[in-house]
Design brief:
There is one protein chain. With 352 residues, this protein is α/β, with parallel strands linked by helices. The chain folds into two domains: 166 residues, Rossmann fold, CATH 3.40.50.10490; 124 residues, Roll (CBS-domain). Helices cover 40% and strands 14% of the residues. The chain contains 15 helices and ten strands. It has a five-stranded parallel β-sheet with strand order 2-1-3-4-5, sandwiched between helices. It has a three-stranded mixed β-sheet with strand order 6-7-8. Strands 9-10 form a two-stranded antiparallel ribbon. The radius of gyration is 32 Å and the shape is elongated. Keywords: CBS domain, Isomerase, Repeat. Pfam families: CBS, SIS. One of its GO terms (molecular function) is isomerase activity. This is Probable arabinose 5-phosphate isomerase.
């Protein structure tokens, strides 16, 4: 009976992934670039069919109804259409529009209590014959909600029992059996998100208002955060006077994590900056003479600066601007008084 090789004798080749199968599944057909290209082209054609045949008058009526809805806009659907309905609702919420997803099953077991007169309920269904949605309709109508069906099959039951129907033209599913909902859900998503952006424009939503709905993400931070929100303040600043010897300020230069010295006068007016790069260049050029040089003699007296009320994202752009990028910007007020410093590391750490 053979023994296992010692652990130390195992080679990397014995741990390869994916493993090479000596007997590949004979039932699997190969996939190549040509096959994928044909599928993408077919899907493109199916989507073009939707774009060319969409009834814009229906779509406009639907959009205006949502825009003027006095209450909350609810979306509902089953299966893949339910996922799309939930996503569109979340898009509206991110735009500051009162919206929510209502599960048809949960609605029939108590959640319908959230519906009120003046609310709009949008029901997504490819066939328009989804049993759960049809059961929901009379209950939602009894609550006073306005009902809109969004369907793709002509003359369906759901369209006939709702107050409004929007037909999403569907040539066929990309699925070879015309069954798997892939093209139908794609056009539902395109339709819903496009209407959402139309509502965004009609409501004159500003970038600042949009940002307040995304405070934790990069979108919000780039539109909300100002320089004063992310800058190091006076107690953290690596400051010195122009008459100070360079070698006496090495601790200040290296201990504050800014990569520079901020040269100020007695009233805290900014005179210039001296960076660790300036230190290396001065040492190379002056040798032992550096022991006699002052910071004021070697500092940059025309550094890039920024106002505390400027947007933090603009500070990042200013750092990256030609002729060469910089790692920090002194923050000064209108009187040229130093009040802080913003660093590239600090901006990146804040999520910008």
């Amino acid at each position: 009976m053979g023994s296992l090789p010692p652990v130390g004798d195992m080679s990397l080749s014995s741990c390869q992934w994916p493993p090479k199968s000596p007997n590949p599944n004979p039932d699997l057909s190969p996939i190549d670039e040509s096959t994928l290209l044909d599928l993408f082209k077919s899907q493109q054609n199916h989507l073009n069919f939707f774009f060319h045949n969409l009834d814009l008058s229906q779509t406009l009526k639907f959009t205006v109804t949502l825009l003027n809805a006095p209450g909350t806009i609810f979306f509902s659907g089953v299966g893949k259409s339910g996922f799309v309905a939930r996503k569109i609702s979340q898009t509206l919420v991110s735009l500051g529009i009162r919206s929510a997803f209502l599960s048809p099953l949960d609605a029939l077991h108590g959640d319908i209590g959230i519906l009120n007169s003046g609310d709009v309920l949008v029901l997504f269904s490819k066939s328009g014959n989804t049993e759960e949605l049809l059961r929901l309709v009379p209950c939602a109508r009894a609550k006073g909600a306005y009902l809109i069906a969004v369907t793709s099959v002509e003359a369906n039951v759901l369209a006939g029992v709702c107050d409004m129907n929007v037909h999403l033209p569907l040539e066929r599913e990309l699925c070879p059996f015309d069954l798997a909902p892939v093209t139908s859900t794609a056009i539902q998503m395109v339709f819903g998100d496009t209407v959402a952006i139309a509502l965004m424009g009609a409501r004159n939503l500003t970038k600042e208002e949009y940002a307040t709905n995304h405070p934790a993400g990069r979108i919000g931070k780039s539109l909300i955060f100002k320089v004063k929100d992310v800058m190091k303040k006076q107690s953290e600043l690596p400051v010195c006077k122009e008459g100070d010897l360079i070698m006496d300020q090495l601790v200040e230069l290296t201990s504050k994590g800014c990569g520079c010295l901020l040269v100020i006068d007695e009233e805290y007016h900014l005179i210039g900056t001296f960076t660790d790069g300036d230190l290396r260049r001065t040492l190379k050029a002056s040798g032992e003479g550096i022991f006699k040089l002052t910071v004021g003699q070697m500092c940059n007296r025309k550094p890039r600066t920024i106002d505390p009320e400027a947007m933090a994202v603009d500070a990042m752009k200013k750092m990256e601007a030609p002729p060469s990028p910089v790692q920090f910007l002194p923050v000064i007020n209108l009187q040229n008084m130093l009040i802080g410093i913003v660093t590239l590391h600090g901006l990146v750490s804040s999520g910008l």
